[in-house]
Design brief:
Elements (H helix, E strand, L loop, with lengths): L6 H12 L6 H12 L7 H12 L3 H11 L16 H13 L7 H5 L33 H8 L5 E10 L1 H11 L7 E7 L3 E6 L8 H14 L5 E6 L37 E3 L7 E3 H10 L6 E5 L11 H18 L1 E6 L10 H5 L5 E3 L3 H11 L11
Parallel strand pairs: 3-4, 3-7, 7-8, 8-9
Antiparallel strand pairs: 1-2, 5-6
């Protein structure tokens, strides 16, 4: 039975857990193997750098590990026992010391560099070490690591590429059918063919949540290392729906829903989305959806991040109709669709967000449970809504 981790490692793990930085048994095992190999014994800084190298996946996570490391008392570590061949090395060193020194060449003694006067000597630059005791790490409701771990579960394995793996079942079936020794059946490796489109509402009532939404965006695209996640921005809705005139046909304009005309609302044919949160680089939504639709394997799903009017607590039937048109376009091209709302669930009722949640699965962005449920919906788990699109 392998010994447990040193006490300071347990304290370090507790400090990281307080910062929502979870470590698993494999992370502790990696540290134990690195220490057994002789790394991290020279100084406290070397041990700190080793922990950062093994556990941190981004600069932000590195700051979290360093800040937690400073809260832990690390005792003087005894390095691993020296190898048995050290006496032989000492013997070789004594022999080399006994040999007479080589005579320096006369040419080397004659060459001398004389300092030139005139200009004053420049002071050497000083590289002061950064004091990390005051590292300010944002405490968001869901950590970057938790978001990335949840997002990595969105997978769609597809066999693409050259045939390099052995299909055991097919090979045995061929052998049994033929009755003679045959070559193994080769198939392509499974690759994650997930393609996600993330649309983020920016500006206006979403301004108070901008930092947290950027934190989520960074976790999805950088920490999760998802090269097939496309992020675009819009404000309220990408474009007005051409079916706004249907609002005049409602028998009860104060019903608080659009179920009467839901089936007659057509998908949004086009609209403007942006490549940056400042909304300065526009793109056509239709071109983006056509590009995803023409890609190999097609799109896996779409995620909309926005408050849907819940921040101000108002119900706007025009915005609801425009949002339904957008959601129909995404459902038609992207298949699976979820909405992540940064506002608390208690603010959805009575606003446009509460009406939108009747047509598409909506989950809170500020809770880990909501994020996990959204990931399960993207993986294919059915979610019941009152009035499906």
């Amino acid at each position: 039975m392998s010994p447990g981790p040193p006490p300071f490692v347990t304290d370090l793990i507790d400090q990281l857990r307080r910062r929502a930085f979870m470590l698993g048994p494999e992370d502790v095992a990696a540290l134990r193997q690195a220490l057994a190999a002789g790394f991290g014994w020279s100084s406290r800084a070397a041990l700190e750098d080793l922990c950062v190298t093994l556990w941190a996946k981004s600069d932000r996570e590195a700051d979290v590990v360093r800040a937690a490391f400073l809260r832990v008392d690390v005792p003087d570590l005894d390095p691993p026992a020296a190898a048995e061949d050290e006496p032989a090395a000492d013997l070789d060193a004594s022999r080399s010391d006994a040999e007479p020194d080589a005579v320096a060449s006369p040419a080397a003694e004659e060459v001398r560099a004389e300092p030139m006067g005139g200009l004053p000597a420049l002071p050497a630059p000083s590289f002061a070490s950064v004091d990390r005791r005051l590292v300010l790490v944002p405490r968001y409701p869901v950590s970057e690591r938790e978001i990335a771990q949840a997002w990595r579960r969105v997978r769609r394995p597809v066999r693409v590429g050259p045939a390099v793996e052995v299909d055991v079942d097919a090979s045995l079936r061929r052998r049994c059918d033929s009755g003679v020794a045959t070559a193994p059946v080769l198939v392509a490796r499974r690759r994650n063919a997930v393609r996600m489109l993330v649309l983020i509402d920016a500006g206006g009532s979403m301004t108070p949540y901008a930092d947290y939404v950027e934190h989520v965006r960074r976790a999805l695209t950088e920490t999760a290392r998802s090269e097939t996640t496309t992020v675009r921005y819009f404000h309220n809705v990408p474009a007005p729906s051409p079916d706004r005139r249907l609002l005049d046909t409602l028998s009860d304009p104060f019903a608080g829903n659009l179920d009467e005309i839901l089936l007659r609302i057509s998908p949004l044919p086009n609209g403007a989305v942006y490549a940056d949160p400042a909304l300065t680089r526009p793109e056509r939504l239709a071109d983006l959806l056509d590009l995803d639709d023409a890609a190999a394997g097609g799109p896996t799903g779409a995620v909309v991040i926005g408050d849907a009017g819940a921040a101000r607590g108002r119900y706007d039937p025009v915005r609801l109709l425009d949002t339904i048109a957008l959601l129909k376009a995404l459902r038609e091209r992207c298949g699976r669709l979820v909405w992540l709302n940064p506002t608390p669930v208690g603010r959805w009722a009575g606003s446009t967000a509460g009406r939108v949640s009747r047509h598409v699965p909506m989950f809170p962005l500020a809770t880990k449970a909501g994020l996990d449920t959204a990931v399960e919906a993207l993986r294919g788990r059915s979610v019941l809504v009152d009035a499906p699109l």
